[in-house]
Amino acid sequence: MRFHPSIPLLRIVPDDTKFDFMQFRRISFPISALLSIIAIVLFFHPGLNLGIDFKGGTLIELQTKDGPADLAKMRATLTALQLGDVQLQSFGGPSDVLIRIAQQPGGEGAQQAAVAKVRSALGEQIEYRRVEVVGPRVSGELLSYGTLGIIAAIGAILIYLWFRFEWQFALGAMIANVHDLVLTLGFMAIMQIDFDLTSIAALLTILGYSLNDTVVVFDRIREMLRRYKKLPMTELLNISINSTLSRSIITHLTVTLALLALFMFGGHAIHGFVTTMIFGVVLVGTYTSVFIAAPILIYLGVGTGRQESTDGEKVTTANIRFNA
Amino acid sequence: MLYFSRWKALATLLTALFICALAAPNFLPEKTLRSLPKWAQRHIVLGLDLQGGSHILLEVDINDVRKQKAESLRDDVRNSLRNARVGYTGLTIRDLSVEVRIREESDFQAALTKLRELSQPLGGLLSTTGQRSVEVIDAGNRVIRLTITQPGITERVRQVVDQAIQIVERRINEIGTVEPLIQRQGADRILVQVPGVDNPTRILDLLGRTAKLTFRLVDASVSPEQALQGRVPPESELLYGPQKDGKPPYVIERRIMVTGEELTDAQPGFDQRTSEPIVTFKFNINGARRFAQVTQENVGRPFAIVLDNEVISAPVIREPILGGSGQISGNFTIEQANDLAVLLRAGALPAKLTPIEQRVVGAGLGQDSIVNGTRAAYLGAALVVLSMFLIYGKFGLVANVAVAINVAMIFGVLSLLNATLTLPGIIGVVLTIGIAVDSNVLIYERIREEVRSGRTAIAAIDAGFTRALATILDSNITTFIAAAVLFFIGTGPVRGFAVTLGIGIITTVFTAFTLTRLIVSWWVRWARPQRLVIS
């Protein structure tokens, strides 16, 4: 037959890749611990840049109709209104301005009054592209829903993994992915990305995608555990990670490309979201499932007892044959 | 794994095609769509962040409800004791309680029995909870204390929200917007979503006002100056004109002559003499009769028109008004006159509503978001398709076909659900394109491994599918759980993200399990590869 079908044209990872990921854990674990501590410190100082969803207040996105916006003049006008903390920043084009007004004292009605004042002070030559006012009660609720949501998601996934795998796998996956969330939160704090409802969406998606990755590796580990009863654990984990490595890289490549497209063309409104996703999924998620999630299984006691078996069959990547 | 019976293949294809076809109504022009039968009209609705509009969350002012409830309980106590001809003193409101002292010891038991009738069981006739709206107790020393129970307040809040929703609906419909969404949220909130209104302050003006209109006589027994010094007669109160006009207040009798509830119509217009914007109104028969009687008996006295405890105007009655119609003037702008007419036609809210969350997106930003989102989606799709082709060649093409069908199916399901597409929703679709190829990657990488371990092409493909599908299911369920949680906690745009992400996962798993397998099995049958050569 003339036809020679071949699957991969581009070789992403050579077939005989045998990187010793398990050895690397002696470096990766301390690094992760250190980064996590730094992230937690960042979480408290400078802390997350809470957006109006969680802090309450007013956000106005406007575009001046008569040429570029004069930020200094606008700032002076708004400061004269004495609305407390008012921040202005240019946003996108030269005539786009983003105004943030801190929550007004005096309850729910006071927020609306502040917006009315700003509108009349800035005059007619302005197109209001977005006006968001979140009162104290709603922001408090959104914050607790958001926190609750992340905890609920972690809990639900933990239970699912526990049913699907052994508890050690569930716990390992969770440690790894809470580590992802902590690092991402630290990243958001250091970059001062607006932390709002879409950030919760980003965090949950990062959680989902990172676990997706971890589960793929774990699936392979479980399969190997069933098939090679006497293979030493470190070696088994190494083989599992190496054999799923190519898939991990290709999948992250395509997700990164999608995120890159969003970053370039998605507009200003979603920059924070996409930046967070790129950090969480691409940088941390990949690293975690390879260097943290799988190696941690050893410490959780998966496959204890097999290391001691010295008389066991010697299996390496080279002579493993899948023969179902 | 690779064998598909003719019927199974057909069923798979038809299902996929059908779901894709569900997206078709989105491409029809508005007019054609309307002419279709209801079941064929299902289509994706653009979220407020894409088409522009206002999202307003209103909360019923509980304190207002409590105050009203206590006041009406006091009035009930007064009426019922009067009807029973029982002498009393010191009828007072204390927060949620009303206290009254019965003059004669001999009347006390009768009064207590009478007042107990004011307490009604809650939850209708079939209720078995035994809860009552008011607790009536003998507080000693001939004092009876009636306390409104917490369930009584809750019940009242529920009724208030029901009534308020109707009024809000009428008000919003008056300004003529398309497809507003007005619904209850929780116990004491109303969500209002109105697409495409450029001036959101107008909506807030319309919804933030109770619009309780009353006609009351001005008390001429004291001057406003005297009243300001604290000498307000007990049967009157001190009310101001519209804010910031600096005029002295009015002394207005508490007794309400006619209320806005008796109106049948209100229209904006112009005063014939001064050309000033005014609102003309018409009473129903009952209201007209009352109005005629009051104006007949009080010619020469000022008659105040009070809206939400603000005196709009207090013209002197020059002659009896018998026709049951009249006009309100009060230095209105044209828009104010318009809005007042709308408010009067729609009726008064049963309690004050406070906006506690407001999100307004202009049509311009919405349009930009659509353009940006679509552009990002095309670029993302192009990059993913290209890289899959570069990495996997013709197998990459299979993955790309699967992804294309996948995206079409997402839009089909969104249409079927009449779902709302938001900017985060578009992000969800783009991410799905990125992650959907993962299932193909898992399958292909597994096949490659099987080939390396020495299997023949067909056996490798078969084993690759079998092994990879279990992993695909496991790995997607975790993301699906995250999306489901997001759906429950999120609102508006974020919920839109959860929806597309969740649907994307389901369609991804469906295509991996059926379409990809089907296409590969066709290819195997057509090419009959003996071995898969790996370069």
Short characterization:
By secondary structure, chain A is α+β, with helices and mostly antiparallel strands.
Note the overall shape of chain A: elongated
Distance between the termini of chain A: 28 Å
Mean pLDDT rating of chain A: 84
- Taking all Cα atoms into account, the compactness measure Rg of chain A is 26 Å
Average pLDDT level of chain B: 87
What multimeric state do the chains show?
heterodimer
The tally of beta strands of chain A, per DSSP, is 6
The CATH homologous superfamily of the largest domain in chain B is called Multidrug efflux transporter AcrB transmembrane domain
Quickly give the structural class of chain A. alpha+beta
The span between the termini of chain B is 26 Å
Could you characterize what this model shows?
The complex is a heterodimer of chains A (324) and B (535). Chain A is an alpha+beta fold and 324 residues long. Chain A has two domains: 21-50 and 139-299, Multidrug efflux transporter AcrB transmembrane domain (Multidrug efflux transporter AcrB transmembrane fold, Up-down Bundle); 57-134, Alpha-Beta Plaits (2-Layer Sandwich). Chain A is 63% helix and 10% strand. Chain A has nine helices and six strands; from the N terminus they run αβαβαββαβααβααα. Chain A has helices at 21-47, 52-55, 71-79, 107-122, 136-164, 167-191, 197-227, 233-265, 271-299, and strands spanning 49-50, 57-64, 86-90, 96-101, 126-134, 194-195. In chain A, the strands form two sheets. A four-stranded antiparallel β-sheet of chain A has the order 3-4-2-5. Chain A has a two-stranded parallel sheet with strand order 1-6. In chain A, strand 3 (86-90) and strand 4 (96-101) form a beta hairpin. Residues 1-5 and 307-324 of chain A have low confidence and may be disordered. Chain B has 535 residues and is of the alpha+beta class. Chain B has three domains: 6-51 and 364-527, Multidrug efflux transporter AcrB transmembrane domain (Multidrug efflux transporter AcrB transmembrane fold), CATH 1.20.1640; 62-155, Gyrase A, domain 2, CATH 3.30.1360; 209-359, 2-Layer Sandwich (Gyrase A, domain 2), CATH 3.30.1360. Chain B has helices spanning 6-21, 30-35, 48-51, 62-83, 108-116, 150-174, 200-208, 224-228, 285-297, 334-346, 363-392, 394-416, 423-452, 457-489, 492-527; strands at 45-46, 53-60, 88-94, 97-102, 134-138, 143-148, 181-185, 189-195, 213-217, 236-239, 250-253, 258-259, 263-270, 277-283, 303-307, 310-313, 325-329, 353-361, 420-421. In chain B, helix 4 (62-83) packs across helix 6, helix 6 crosses helix 10 and helix 13 runs antiparallel to helix 14 (457-489). Chain B starts with 5 loop residues before the first helix and ends in an 8-residue tail after the last helix. The chains are: A alpha+beta (324), B alpha+beta (535). Chains A and B meet through helix 4, strand 5, helix 5, helix 7 and helix 8 of A and helix 7, strand 18, helix 11, helix 13 and helix 14 of B. Strand 5 (126-134) of chain A pairs antiparallel with strand 18 of chain B.
